[in-house]
Amino acid sequence: MSAKPQHERILFGLKVKQLRQAQGLSFVELSKESQLSVSYLNEIEKGKKYPKEDKIPSLAAALGTTREELVSLGLSKSMAPVGELLQSNFLNELPLDLFGIELSKVVEIIANAPVRVGAFISTLLELSRNYALKEENFYFGALRSYLELHNNYFEELEEAAVDFARSANLPDTRPVSADALKQVLEARYGYEVVEDGLKPFPDLGKLRSVYVPAEKKLLLNSKLSHIQRSFQFGKELGFQHLGLRERANTSSLLRGRNFEEVLNHSKAVYFSVALHIPRHTITEALQAFFEKERWDGEAFLGIMKKYEATPEMFYHRLTNILPRFFGMDKLFFLRFLHDPATDTFEIDKELHLSRRHHPHGNALSEHYCRRWVALSLLQDLHQLQQEGKFVDTIVRAQRSHYIGTEDEYLCLTIARPAYPTPNRNVSVTIGLLANEEARSKIAFFEDPAIQYREVNKTCERCAVTDCAERAAPPTVVLRREEWKHIQATLAGLGA
Q: Is the peptide bond before 420 cis (omega within 30 degrees of 0)?
C-alpha cells in the first residue's frame, strides 16, 4: 500500500466507486477484469487502501478510463464539493473518535450519495462563507457537544486534581495560595514566572498570560487579581501534570488550530477549577445552601468568596457538580459581555446540558431579550457605576418563563466589571429548568422574593406589544404575519 495522504485515498476510492457503478459492474465482475480481489477493491473504495503503482493500469482499464484520469485529484462537478471538503483537512480534524464514529463510515455515506451529499456540503460551505465561520468555530462547537455528552463532568480530571494536590503537599483548606502553585511550577517544571511580563507588549494587554515554551517563561499581565494569577498557575500545572503537549500558549484560545488543542485547553481549565474548588467541599456547601427556605444572594456569593474564586470559576464548577451530585442535568450557562458605550450585549461562552435551552447565542445580530436577568443585571451594574459607586459583584435570581412554551428556568446571575479589560462588564448565568428534580432539591425555588418574568428569545422574534424593555421592532414576527396573509390570499384565489 502506498503511503498516500488520507484525503487522496478517500478521493481515489470515491472515483473508483463512481466509475464502477457507471459501468454497471459488481465487485465480482470488477475483480475478474482487474485481477484484484473483492476484499481489496472494497478496501480501496472505503479509502482505506491505495493500490500499488503496478496495479493501477489494469484497474483503470477495467473501469474504462486511463491511469492518468484515475489518479488525478480532479473530480466531476457533482463530486467537487466533496473534494473541497476532504482537501480542507476538515474531516481529519473532527473528533470523530470521541463520538464513536469511524471516518470510513462518513466516507461510505459520502460515496453512497455523492450528488446529494455534495449539495449538502456546498450549502454548509456557503453558509460558512456568509457567516464568516472558520474551522475553529467547528472545533469549539465539537468541544461543546463533547462536554454536553458527558454532562461536563470528568472523573479522571477530578482524580488528577486530587492526586496533584496530594503530591504537591497542598493543604486541604481553601483558598489555595497562588505563591504555592507558583513554587511548584518553578521547582517541579522549571518555569520562570515573569509577573509583569506583558508590560512591554501593549497590544497583548487584554490577555492574562502568555507562555513562551522555548524559554519556559510564563508572562503575566500585571493587572491580574490574586485569584486570576492563581488560576493561570493552576492551568499551567494542568498542562504539565496531565501531559498535554498540544496546546495554545495564550491564556485564552485566540484561534483553535486543531481539535486536540481546543480539548486540551478545556482539560487544563477544568483541572485548575477542580484544584481551586474541591468537589467534596463545594458539594457540601451547595447542599446547605439549597436547604435554605429563602433565596439569599449574599450566601450564594459567600460560597464563591470562600474559595476566592472568580464568577467564571465558580459557575464552571456548578456545571460540573449540579448534574453529577444533585441530578440537575437540565441546565444552561451563559456569559455576556456588555459594552456600555454602545449598549451592546454579546454572548462569548455558553453550555447546554441535556438539550439546547431557550436562551442561547444568536449569530444574526438580533437583540437579546432585555428581560433576561443576565442583561438587566448588567444594566443595573452600569447604572451604579454611572452614579460613582464602586461595585465588585452583584447577584440576582429570577424565574424566567418563556412565552409560548411550558419552560421556566431558575436563573442565578452574577455581574462584575470585566477586569483586566476596562470599560466593559460581564455577567455569568446558570439556568436550571424548573422540573420536579430542581424544585425538590432547592427549598427556596418558590420564594416569592425571587423576581418572576415573562421572557422571550430576541426582540425581533417577540410578539409582546407592551414591552417597556423592547430594544428593536419585532421584524421576524412581522415577516411571518405578512407571509401568512399572502398564503391566505393565495388560498382564497385557489392558487
A: yes
Q: pLDDT tens digit string along 179-208?
A: 999 999 999 999 999 999 999 999 998 899
Residue 29 burial (10 A CB sphere; 0-12, 13-18, 19+)? middle
10 Å CB burial of residue 282 (0-12, 13-18, 19+) is buried
Predicted model pTM: 0.77
DSSP summary character for residue 321: H
Domain 155-276 belongs in CATH node 1.10.10.2910: yes
CA–CA separation, 247 vs 260, rounded Å?
Answer: 8
Tens digit of pLDDT for each residue in 248-298?
999 988 877 788 899 999 999 999 999 999 999 999 999 999 999 999 999
Closest CA to 139 of 313, 319, 264, 10: 264
The answer to whether the CB of 45 falls within 8 A of the CB of 16 is: yes
Helix residue ranges per DSSP H, 294-372:
297-306, 311-326
Architecture of domain 6-133: Orthogonal Bundle (1.10)
Instruction: Determine the Cα–Cα distance for residues 360 and 141; give it in Å rounded to an integer.
Output: 13
| Helices 226-241 and 259-276, packing angle to 10 deg | 120
Domain assignments of the chain as residue spans, ordered by start:
6-133, 155-276, 279-460
Question: Dihedral of the CA atoms 207, 268, 289, 150 (nearest 10)?
Answer: 120
